[in-house]
Amino acid sequence: MNSSGSKRTLWHNARLATLAGDQPWGWLPQGALITEGEQIVWVGEASQLSPELSASIAQQRDLGGAVVTPGLIDCHTHLVYGGSRAHEFELRLQGASYEEIARAGGGIRSSVAATREAGEHELYALAAQRLQTLLAEGVTTIEVKSGYGLSQAAEAKMLRVARRLAGLGLEVRTTYLGAHALPPEYQGRPDAYVKALCDWLPELKREGLVDAVDAFCEGIGFTPAQTRQVFEAARALELPVKLHAEQLSDQGGTQLACEFGALSCDHLEYLGEAGIRALQASGTVAVLLPGAYYFLRETKLPPVQALREAGVPIAIATDHNPGTSPTLSLLLMLNMACTLFRLTPEEALRGVTQHAARALGLADRGQLVAGQRADFCIWDIAHPNELAYYFGRNPLRHTVRGGQLRN
Ligand code: NIG
Ligand code: FE
């Protein structure tokens, strides 16, 4: 025990990808970590452990030379919904576009009907099952959006389900996406719907259901002017904003979001020069979603090299949703971020740890450094570049969350 009476654990014989410092990967090939409670209290080369530190250790775990990375963070998901959209996938394979299906009343609207129909227990069971797959790959923090309810009661239902998922042993950040699509009862009255969804926000926040506010700014979603109204409502409640931006066309949503100091702008295939400059100036994270790019058979690549040159932090997420990205593998997204978007394996790993944390406004995780949460993954690989190299293989040995071995 140390002076505060709390037990310290030494995790040693580890190859650490700390993602901190100047070395590629923040690599410490003969590394060790000390945790106390939920925190990391020391990280370094095992040879640098001082006698005083060694004396404070209550228990030790030999990791047998395994690679250790920060816990994975999936910073963009729509994990809670009813129904399936597999039939739309078939329609798209026959030539229909995502936009055509949406305009014909399918798409998001069909998930809205199924989500409204589903009871809270059923929604929870479905989402919990999906979450198990993500947890099995080392996800320790996840963001979950609403946006398939589109009424105050159904949005609240989705967000309550998202909150309950935290009981499965990870941190859940909730994002209110009332501005996802126009519900049928507001057909032809988009401005009235935008007013309504803004009016629901104070109560949803009071119920403790909202950590951030998002919108779908797109030809088939909401205009920049409507998105601005949503952001004004968020700002009035001091809630941070994010945006589904430039996914199918360049609407200038990114510039608007950056004007509001957005945590992140997500998708970004059609992002132009002005948007890149705006991200650079506001320090907003660019969240790239290779699953949606792949599943929609998009051909326009996000401007990765320009983002890199501008020093914009790039995160990667699953965007798990029934319409455009039904994947439950964040590791597969690492591979796709490299093969499809030409990120380096190191950039991809930073994208699901360090930069994903920032996209959620979480400063206490994403790297292995003293003071951060003790959330980390222990992998059966020799080098962290293998996380992006394999696809369809899960080399996770254990997850540690808040200093506790979880699986
Ligand atoms: O992130 N772009 C809008 N929202 C989701 C798709 C939702 C759906 O089709 O159900 C996305 O790709
Ligand atoms: Fe999304």
Automatic annotation (TrEMBL):
Listed binding positions for N-formimidoyl-L-glutamate are 148, 321, 323
| Positions that bind Fe(3+) | 76, 78, 244, 319
UniProt-listed Enzyme Commission number(s): 3.5.2.7
Q: What is its main location?
A: cytoplasm
Catalysed transformations (reactions): 4-imidazolone-5-propanoate + H2O = N-formimidoyl-L-glutamate
Q: In which pathway does it act?
A: Amino-acid degradation; L-histidine degradation into L-glutamate; N-formimidoyl-L-glutamate from L-histidine: step 3/3
The record's comment on cofactor binding reads:
Binds 1 zinc or iron ion per subunit.
Q: Where is this protein found? A: Cytoplasm
Name the residues that bind Zn(2+): 76, 78, 244, 319
Q: Which UniProt keywords apply?
A: Cytoplasm, Histidine metabolism, Hydrolase, Iron, Metal-binding, Zinc
The UniProt entry, under CDD domains, shows:
Imidazolone-5PH (cd01296)
> InterPro entries recorded for this chain?
Amidohydro-rel, HutI, Metal-dep_hydrolase_composite, Metal_Hydrolase
Q: Which residues bind 4-imidazolone-5-propanoate?
A: 85, 148, 180, 247, 324
One GO biological process this protein is involved in is:
L-histidine catabolic process to glutamate and formamide
What cofactor does this protein call for? Zn(2+); Fe(3+)
UniProt record similarity statement:
Belongs to the metallo-dependent hydrolases superfamily. HutI family.
Q: What does this protein do?
A: Catalyzes the hydrolytic cleavage of the carbon-nitrogen bond in imidazolone-5-propanoate to yield N-formimidoyl-L-glutamate. It is the third step in the universal histidine degradation pathway.
Q: Which NCBIfam families match?
A: hutI (TIGR01224)
Supply the name of the protein.
Imidazolonepropionase
Lineage per the UniProt record: Bacteria, Pseudomonadati, Pseudomonadota, Betaproteobacteria, Burkholderiales
Question: What gene name is given for the protein in this entry?
Answer: hutI
